[in-house]
Amino acid sequence: MTNYYIIDFDSTFTQVEALDELARISLANHPARELIYEEIERLTNLSMNGQLSFRESLSGRVKLLEANREHLKKLITILKKRVSPSFSRNREFFKKHSDGVLIVSGGFKEFIVPVVSPYHIKQDNVYANTFIFDEQGNITGYDENNPLSEEGGKVKLLRQLQLPGKIYGIGDGYSDFQLKESGLIERFFAFTENIERKSVSERADHVTPSFDEFLYVNDLPRAISYPKNRILCLIVGDVPEIAAHILKRDGFSIRVKETVEEKYVKDVGMLLLGKDIRLDDAQLAQADKLKTIGYLGDSKHRINRSICNEKGIVLFDDKKDKKRNSEFIPRRMADFINKGDTYMSRNFPNLILPKIEKAHRLLHIHRNVPGVMAQINNVFAENQINIVAQFLMTKGDIGYAVTDVDAQYDKQLLKQLRQIANTVKFRVLY
Prior knowledge:
Elements: E1 4-7, H1 9-13, H2 18-26, H3 33-48, H4 54-65, H5 69-81, H6 85-88, H7 91-96, E2 101-108, H8 109-116, E3 126-129, E4 131-133, E5 139-142, H9 153-161, E6 167-171, H10 174-182, E7 187-191, H11 198-201, E8 206-208, H12 211-217, E9 232-236, H13 241-249, E10 253-257, H14 262-265, E11 270-273, H15 281-286, E12 292-295, H16 305-311, E13 314-317, H17 325-339, E14 360-367, H18 372-382, E15 387-395, E16 398-405, H19 412-418, E17 423-429
Parallel strand pairs: 1-2, 1-6, 2-3, 6-7, 7-8, 9-10, 9-11, 11-12, 12-13
Antiparallel strand pairs: 4-5, 14-16, 14-17, 15-16
């Protein structure tokens, strides 16, 4: 039985509301453009929050557009650049599940199909409204017989389709939530990567801050093994806002505190500390999930590097107190989480790694003793794993091995790599 994935387009597959963007193109030279933009956005939000019928909202917005086919071409160019990052990096999922992925939107096929087609989403699986044009190519209206132009249109469409399998809904608006209310879908996921509408997320089965999270929860093929929104980054002390912005924009969950609180220590995955903050040895020893520490200053005498090495925690700091360290340090931390890079680390061997190409990246941190690499490669050989690339560097008592392997392997492999003698920490990147 096929599983079906009903995905919204505006503010879900893409980061923006397409009709809002179309208005900015078509009304660029209109003397009252700012007032019209505001009215279109108002109509959009009223509908998305369930405060105005979709038919009223759609009719009102289309009348205000004054758009034509040339404007649509410009819109498509913009939308292709504004695909939500977590959808963009998961093309392989769409390729493997092309029969089960449906784009269902109150938007319009004329701009949706060209944007989603490069992601292996079939044109026949795009359900949306269609514009009506005059002979000069001006938009004069839309097909009012299409159920998606009506209030509750997504529910009406799904009843017509009668899909023979479990159905999962992903979207940001009230029309997406109506699928859950109808009882036609298995679970509804409120998508909040671009915008969170409390009226929708509070009643969803699951709030998914990214498409990675949706794939992770449902144990589906994905570009990264563990969603970044599940990695907690604790920021403590005098840390400029730009540092938190960089990490939040990258998808990490951020907590800002004045001190390192005991309740966060065991769950924190990243720690960014302001100058002069000291991390107690006892706190550091309890931080079992901690992967990297960033310190905006010289960490000497403030963070125990021996404990960091024992626990496989990568430390980045800036003992020269450069002006740009509030941007440089968080980016180094993010690069380690995202790619495994340890460039400019204070305690690890410095590695700058190439982009992962259709492979899984395995990070093995171990004590720098003879025979560990032989054990690692024996495990790969016993499991008949094809190694795409492998990198090894050592520094003092730390060994750092990065191996890119073909994506197809038994999960038992990961357990065996973790059990190798002298392993400090093991992590999978996809």
